[in-house]
Specification:
The protein has 449 residues and is of the alpha+beta class. It has 23 helices and 13 strands. Strand 12 and strand 13 form a beta hairpin.
Length: 449
């Protein structure tokens, strides 16, 4: 087995070897190279101590020297070089209380999470695979190094990482590892929200976001997203649907592109349904107001998981409007919908609406998709004709209104909004001359705003 190592990384390995030390690329970069995937980073492991590494290279940064890591700079690139180590006791379920440097590569690889991440390589010795990582790659299997209970006791986040790797690589989780995930899932309550968020986003934006179901099956969502468990327990006895809210959500995740905001919106678009569930006398389920309720609940969930304000705002808005279907016929109806939902959000609304339809009862999909296609075509025509859809497209500004004699204040915004509503209905009115005349009430035959 030969792996092509970036030249700069190979030069670092050669320099360490020439000085009498062992050195290998290690971990995820080896895994990705074997799978012909692009490696994000090329990490190097060595038996040289941090001080010895620093002495060999003119430009280094002490990025984690207490844990044996020195970043060696080569041009504008940095490569983490870490001394072989044995981790001490994990007192917080995330970080070792101390690390002990070791001369043994085997001991260093033994502490790593999964077999596919516990391989090392250099051009002289080839692939070092002590724990069967290569076989697991061939079999498409996620398996802990050694006893999975020990690995998850050391670092509870590895529970989420296992599912994330399963989603990214489309691998199965080995039975023992899966059972240990189920047993140790409650320990995720001790992991920081920021760490959970990072793994969750990587899973959701993978090629297989439907793997999110494993989080439910193993009890992980009951710790990090109990609201999803409620969705899995909420039926949808309705002609539009053929499965419960949770299963519908998983189908919608798979049907939308791998964008963080879109995937989060798909995950949370029906999160308000359990709390708005009702059943009529015919036994049909309804979820009146679930968009608005879902938007507020989505905001609370995303804040709990420490997402940034922009992401929270965008996801809330899409959840609120995901089921918006009051789109009248023709260009005017679509312009009104864009005005209502927002010009900046409308393209994502269309994508979420399509994913929502594709996750519904197949018997009614074709008609809904044709209707949506008509809306998309009309929206494309509106964009081509550059119709006014937002205040920034309006032919007059607040300054124009003040120069025309209006006093500054909240009323100014209301007038601008009124003018925007007017030109959404009548795009031909969007001229500065007409709108100012309209404002003064001198337009022939027209009511004053």
């Amino acid at each position: 087995m030969q792996i092509t190592i970036p030249e700069k990384a190979n030069q670092i390995i050669m320099r360490l070897s020439e000085a009498g030390y062992e050195a290998y690329v290690v971990g995820g970069c080896v895994r990705d190279a074997i799978l012909d995937r692009r490696a994000a980073d090329w990490d190097i492991t060595t038996n040289a101590r941090p001080g010895e590494v620093k002495a060999l290279f003119p430009r280094t940064i002490d990025t984690g020297i207490q844990h044996g890591t020195v970043t060696v700079l080569s041009g504008r690139e940095g490569f983490e070089v870490t001394t072989y180590r044995i981790d001490g006791e994990y007192q917080d379920g995330r970080h070792p209380s101390q690390v002990i440097f070791t001369p043994s590569l085997t001991e260093d690889l033994k502490r790593r999470d999964f077999t596919i991440n516990a391989m090392a390589y250099n051009d002289t010795e080839g692939l070092i695979d002590i724990f069967g990582g290569m076989e697991d790659l061939k079999e498409g299997r996620i398996r802990c190094v050694g006893d999975p209970k020990e690995r998850f006791t050391e670092d509870g986040l590895r529970i989420l990482r296992a599912v994330r790797f399963s989603a990214q690589l489309d691998f199965e989780i080995e039975d023992q590892t899966r059972e240990a995930i189920r047993e140790f899932a409650p320990g995720l309550s001790r992991i920081s929200a920021e760490r959970i968020q990072t793994e969750l986003v990587k899973l959701l934006t993978s090629d297989h976001p439907e793997t999110f179901r494993i989080l439910y099956d193993t009890g992980i969502t009951s710790v990090i997203l109990p609201e999803f468990d409620a969705c899995m327990e909420t039926p949808q006895n309705h002609p539009h649907h053929c499965c419960c809210v949770g299963e519908h959500t998983l189908l919608a995740l798979k049907a939308i592109e791998a964008d963080k905001v879109l995937r989060l919106s798909a995950l949370l678009h029906d999160i308000g349904k359990p709390g708005t569930h009702s059943r009529d006398v015919q036994g049909v389920d309804h979820f009146y107001g679930h968009g608005e309720a879902g938007a507020e609940l989505a905001g609370r969930i995303l804040r709990r998981l420490k997402f940034d304000n922009d992401t929270i705002s965008r996801v809330k808005h899409l959840v609120r409007f995901h089921d918006y279907r009051q789109i009248g016929p023709g260009l005017r109806g679509v312009r009104r919908a864009v005005f209502r939902i927002g010009k900046d959000f409308f393209p994502d609304y269309l994508k979420l609406r399509r994913a929502d339809i594709l996750a519904q009862n197949p018997l009614g999909q074709q008609e809904k998709l044709l209707e949506l296609q008509t809306v998309e075509e009309l929206y494309g025509q509106i964009l081509k004709e550059q119709d006014c859809l937002s205040l920034k497209d309006l032919a007059v500004t607040g300054r124009d209104l003040m120069e025309a004699g209006m006093e500054p204040g909240p009323g100014l915004g209301e007038v601008l909004k009124g003018l925007l509503e007017l030109v959404v209905e009548h795009p031909e009115y969007n001229t500065k001359e007409y709108l100012l005349t309209r404002l003064s009430g001198n337009s022939s035959g027209e009511d004053r705003l």
